[in-house]
Amino acid sequence: MLKVEHLTVRYGHIQALEDVSFEVKKNQIISLIGANGAGKTTSLMSISGMVPKIGGSVVFDGTDISRQKAHMITRNGLSHVPEGRRVFPGLTVEENLVTGTIGAGKISKAVMRERMEEMYELFPRMRERASQTAGTLSGGEQQMLAIARGLMNDPKLIMLDEPSLGLAPKVVDEIFELILKIRDMGKTVLLIEQNAALALSISDYAYVLELGHITLHGTGQELLHDPMVMKAYLGI
């Protein structure tokens, strides 16, 4: 579904990513874990066309998207739910969901309503809050809305950046149950998550990023029990 090869990104004189390569297979959950500043968010932003690459390639579903603009990447079926939720606080829940279809090309009102109904089935709380402004939602509800908005263009792959950030443990569990449901819907998920243990527990495969380099990779269960990962990221 996604093949990243030799990706290199710089911010001025700072090397954010150097020669990073990884793959995301269809209908799997793939995680990138690592400390703050390791290059996880930069990886997603470069894939979705938000930051320029100075080297490497990104192939999505058989198409080289390395030089495509962000809106075209979205139209090809890749959604990016950024860190910090970034919902539109002055718009209602329903209006926020509608914005999720803007980059997907023209769709009919019937298709729009069908997708919205799918989101309300997946996120029942969003139905209850449909006419409520997003800025009045709780942190967990805003995160659910951000994910639902990312699904509104019916992506083949959805990238989630720190979906549990700042949320209570009970809400975090809800979010991760939803991620599993999204995978079960036939979607592919690329996940960045500060809670490495939780991310690895649901991941089919995972990569460890350190200072802009991939240093380790394996199945979620393999990394969950890897001594280096346990010591560095799981506090064991």
Please describe the topology of this protein:
Elements: E1 2-11, E2 14-24, E3 29-33, H1 40-47, E4 55-60, E5 63-64, H2 70-75, E6 78-81, H3 93-99, H4 109-122, H5 124-128, H6 139-151, E7 157-161, H7 169-184, E8 188-192, H8 196-202, E9 205-210, E10 213-218, H9 220-224, H10 227-232
Parallel strand pairs: 3-8, 3-9, 6-7, 7-8
Antiparallel strand pairs: 1-2, 1-4, 4-5, 9-10
Helix pairs in contact: 3-6
In short:
The chain is an alpha/beta fold and 236 residues long. It contains 10 helices and 10 strands.
Order of helices and strands: EEEHEEHEHHHHEHEHEEHH
Q: Which descriptor suits the 3D outline? A: globular
- Biggest sheet features: 6 strands, mixed
Specify the structural class.
alpha/beta
Average pLDDT, to the nearest integer? 92
The tally of helices reads 10
Regions with little confidence, pLDDT below 50 for 5+ residues: none
Strand content: 25-35%
Strand neighbour order, sheet with most strands? 6-7-8-3-9-10
Instruction: Give me the count of strands.
Output: 10
Cα end-to-end separation: 34 Å
Helix content range of the residues, please?
A: 25-40%
What does the radius of gyration come to?
Answer: 17 Å
